[in-house]
């Protein structure tokens, strides 16, 4: 199935594209997808994942505009045509 | 009532806002939470536009390392409270408005006094815990909260309309870790200008607010983008209000 990945800021720099269409196996979860993405882009370790391999809690991961924290978090199932957005919020003023 | 002096001064914006819009700006009371990189940009534009009362809250004094971006604070201001430095310049820019200084930390025990009877909160803070407090106050009072934040050449902004849009906590459930963040002053100019634009639009009823969308500025790639964001029914700050409906 085809999905769209939208990457912002540091993630856009690492992944090399703001938006790209990707093919995923049916039933893939957000967590599985992001781990696969780290294998393709090892620099995501440290930016998206902490030292213990967990996704940093403040990174925004949205499925079709919904934060996955309000869905099933990393167990959220990705469906065909979903848009997954990965955004590192900034805090300075 | 707009005076003849005000008609002249604000002529170029009255052309689009009308005198009624200018009167709304004149009657408005806006809290600008922070007088740093964002707060100085926001307050310059709102003062120049004739927002009647600007209430500027900050707890810091001006340091040399502020001067690359905090454009109301100059070399001679080092060591002065930021509120005093900012209000002096704003008064010189526009003597027709009132600038109120609230010097001290924005915290739970003082928030009601800090807020006063403001119609709108504009976020110019440098940390999420204080932003969450301002977000809760905006929800409690039912007034808009305009969020902005910056780092390096990146920035984000959104407008929270209580009861209508996701609140700040819906969008950002967790706060990024504290840090001495890198920053180019011009990034504060981009995001601060967007926040000031949002404030003027909300106060005068012009245009469509940045509601339910997170504006994202990527200065590295010179791209502006936005994400549609939704409410979280389980949000600890606004979720219970939703459940009551």
| CATH fold annotation of chain A | Ubiquitin-like (UB roll)
What name goes with the CATH superfamily of chain A? Beta-grasp domain
What distance separates the N and C termini of chain B? 40 Å
Give the total of beta strands of chain B.
Answer: 8
| Biggest interface between chains | A-B, 23 and 46 residues
CATH class of chain B: Alpha Beta
How much helicity do the residues of chain B have? 25-40%
Order of secondary-structure elements of chain B: HHEHEHEHEHEEHHEEH
Shape of chain A: globular
Biggest sheet of chain A, open or closed, and with what strands and sense? Answer: 5 strands, mixed
CATH H-level superfamily of chain B: NAD(P)-binding Rossmann-like Domain
Percentage beta strand of chain B: 15-25%
Q: What is the number of helical segments of chain B per DSSP (H or I, 4+ residues)?
A: 9
Report the sheet-strand fraction of chain A: 15-25%
The order of strands across the largest sheet of chain A is: 2-1-5-3-4
Overview of the structural elements:
The complex is a heterodimer of chains A (about 90) and B (about 240). Chain A has about 90 residues and is of the alpha+beta class. Chain A has 2 helices and 5 strands; from the N terminus they run E-H-E-H-E-E-E. Chain A has a 5-stranded mixed beta sheet with strand order 2-1-5-3-4. The N and C termini of chain A lie far apart (about 40 Å). The mean pLDDT of chain A is about 95. Chain B has one domain (about 5-245): Rossmann fold (3-Layer(aba) Sandwich), CATH 3.40.50.720. Chain B has 9 helices and 8 strands. Chain B has an 8-stranded mixed beta sheet, with helices on both faces. In chain B, helix 3 (about 35-50) crosses helix 8. The mean pLDDT of chain B is about 95. The interface between A and B is medium-sized, with 23 and 46 residues.
């Amino acid at each position: 199935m085809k999905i769209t990945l939208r990457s912002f800021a540091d993630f856009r720099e690492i992944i090399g594209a703001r938006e790209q269409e990707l093919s995923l196996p049916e039933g893939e979860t957000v967590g599985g997808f992001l781990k696969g993405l780290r294998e393709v882009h090892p620099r995501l370790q440290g930016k998206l994942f902490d030292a213990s391999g967990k996704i940093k809690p403040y990174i925004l991961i949205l499925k079709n505009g919904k934060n996955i924290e309000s869905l099933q978090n990393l167990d959220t199932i990705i469906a065909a045509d979903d848009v997954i957005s990965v955004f590192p919020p900034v805090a300075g003023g | 009532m707009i005076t003849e002096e005000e008609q002249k001064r604000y002529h170029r914006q009255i052309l689009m806002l009308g005198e009624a819009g200018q009167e709304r700006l004149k009657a408005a009371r806006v809290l600008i939470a922070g007088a740093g990189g964002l707060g100085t940009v926001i307050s310059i534009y709102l003062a120049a536009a004739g927002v009647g009362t600007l209430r500027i809250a900050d707890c810091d004094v001006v340091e040399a390392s502020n001067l690359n971006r905090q454009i109301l604070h100059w070399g001679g201001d080092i060591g002065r409270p930021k509120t005093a430095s900012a209000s002096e310049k704003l008064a010189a820019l526009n003597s027709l408005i009132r600038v109120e200084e609230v010097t001290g930390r924005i915290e739970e025990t003082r928030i009601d006094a800090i807020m006063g009877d403001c119609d709108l909160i504009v976020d110019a803070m440098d940390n999420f815990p204080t932003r969450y407090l301002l977000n809760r106050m905006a929800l409690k009072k039912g007034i808009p909260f305009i969020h902005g934040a910056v780092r390096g050449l990146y920035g984000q902004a959104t407008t929270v309309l209580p009861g209508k849009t996701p609140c700040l906590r819906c969008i950002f459930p967790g706060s990024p870790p504290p840090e001495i963040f890198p920053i180019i002053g011009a990034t504060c100019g981009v995001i601060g200008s967007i926040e000031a634009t949002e404030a003027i639009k909300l106060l005068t009823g012009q245009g469509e607010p940045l509601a339910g969308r997170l504006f994202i500025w990527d200065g590295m790639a010179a791209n502006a983008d936005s994400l549609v964001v939704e409410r979280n029914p389980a949000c600890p700050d606004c979720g219970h209000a939703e459940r009551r409906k």
